[in-house]
Amino acid sequence: MYEHKFVRVELSSFKLEPKEDYHTIILQHEKEGWELIQIFAPGTKGYGVASYFEIIFKRKKD
Length: 62
Known about the structure:
Layout: E1 2-10, H1 22-31, E2 35-40, E3 52-60
Antiparallel strand pairs: 1-3, 2-3
């Protein structure tokens, strides 16, 4: 059995760059035993560009 965690990372309005360093987020979660599953950009806003993305992790339940 696994548990999952979804980390939302907002994108800046003008440059469309992540407001947080996603590399740091991934490395931090790996140290806590989480495995990266997917980076997902749900939905889009104006001009067909996502306003955020989610980093999806999983790890085995104890």
